[in-house]
Amino acid sequence: MYEQLFERNLGVFTPEEQKRIRDARVVIIGCGGIGGVVASALARSGLGHFVLFDYDTYQPSNMNRQITCFSDTLGFNKAVCAREAILRINPEADVTHYDRALEAGEIDAAIEMGDVFMPAADEWPLSIAALGRAKELGKPAIMAYPVGALARVSTFLPHSPYAAECLVMPYKTPYEGLQAFMENPNHRKILHYYRSEGAWTQEWFDAWCESKRPHAQLCVMVWITGSLAALEIIKLVSGKWAPVVAPRYWHITPTGARIARFGLARRLLSRQVRRSSGQALLPFLVKRPWLVRLFTRAIR
Q1: Which is it for the CA torsion 209, 212, 214, 218, positive or negative?
Q2: Which residues is 266 bridged to in the sheet?
Q3: pLDDT at 265
Q4: How far is CA 63 from CA 178, 205, 217, 236, 283, in A?
Q5: With a threshold of 0.90, does the pTM exceed it?
Q6: From CA 171, how far away is CA 164, in angstroms rounded?
Q7: Do 31 and 119 contact (CB within 8 A), yes or no?
Q8: pLDDT band of 132, cuts 50, 70, 90
Q9: Cβ pair 18, 44 in contact under 8 A
Q10: What domains appear along the chain, each with residue ranges and CATH number?
């Protein structure tokens, strides 16, 4: 049956490349917006082995973007729904699912479960910490996130910078430290590009900074982000194309698509904000919107 389901792939992939895709195992942490799209796209590409983690259940607010959220899956666990979707596509697929959250202490074990690691948890500090550990363990990993009207996707390999460096977060900081850093409203207010490139409204951005709103997301950008992440995984496991490796990344907006680069200034600032003296500067910045805009342009 497998050969019939994925026969058209052989117009692009050689039989050897398709076999590598079939034999590959991916670990996906979080099966909602990004993770659900990645799982579905990889299943339709013929990837044969999946490990899925998600504690959450579908709610009405997920309907605008999450690929296996329907009126009849509301209240159901997302990892369970992703597994069922994969098996509806390819009944021969091997799918292990955990209907619970990945704990910080389990990151290393989860990374070692597969050939490629894809952290797509809503808890962004956990994903950043996990991307750092994947680099240190020598396992390919994918960073993919949409911010309203902006999408970014990059592959991280052992020689890549840390994801925290690319995103101006504290360098080599454990999960708990990243969590505290990202929950601070003054640190969130520095993310002016959520407004400029992500096209968030000022009202929504202000509420999000105070943890009163979730991320603003659009279906088309979430699905583009997830599809690009799946493409990067297919590149890695098939060996057909070179991945877009950090510090390079996919940069997608409604008006353009390009391969961009996280600049050196980001890495330097990542080391600075690791120190308490560096973090003390952030409240000074956020009180001066023109400095925030200048800061945003300087680290592009």
Answers
A1: negative
A2: none
A3: 81
A4: 29, 21, 11, 31, 36
A5: yes
A6: 6
A7: no
A8: very high
A9: no
A10: 2-298 (3.40.50.720)
